Known about the structure:
This protein is of the alpha+beta class. It is built from 8 helices and 5 strands. It starts with 5 loop residues before the first helix and ends in an 8-residue tail after the last helix.
Amino acid sequence: MSSAPHPWLEQLIAWATPEATKDDLLAARKAWFEKMGEVFDDDRQLEMRMSAFLEHYVCDRVAPHLGATPARARYLESLAQETPERAAAWRALTETIHGLFEVRRIKSPEVRLRGLFSGIDFPVTERRQLIGLEVGDVLECRLVPFGGSLHFTAAWCFHPHEASKLIRVQARTPGLDEAAFTADCAQRALKAERYRQIAVEKIYDFSARRF
């Protein structure tokens, strides 16, 4: 059995997206991109954003035809049909952690993150050199508890270094809706990528918008 979650996540996505439920997939995609920011074929973030949507589709969203998230439905199916080891792997995909995180430390083979809203520290196993990522940066990602440690999925949303402090300060606003704020930041990341002639600080100016 693989010691990393990525092959299992790929299998889950394939299982959850048969041709018979294509209409549901398209409706979910439309709603997600309206919230997180529409991407175009020439966007450098296109592949990453598509991965993020598919992870949301299988891990977070309750599928009408299943009455549960696909991750939960696949796990329940595995309990009756597969070994305990395989069932445990499917269960891990029902326990993912998604949100905005601050990078607290980078020391291979670990990246230590802190949830901006929870304040909880998460040690994430990561042996690759993450080029461009620095302590203090803010990123949106999904973590999977797998094999006794946390792992990144393939989907990230990096925010510019210059925006990190602005995001952290705004996240402390009492009563701020975490999901809405995460989506708003994702939209701003797209704008920062597309309109590089505009100062990042202006794009991430949260004073003009309330949640």
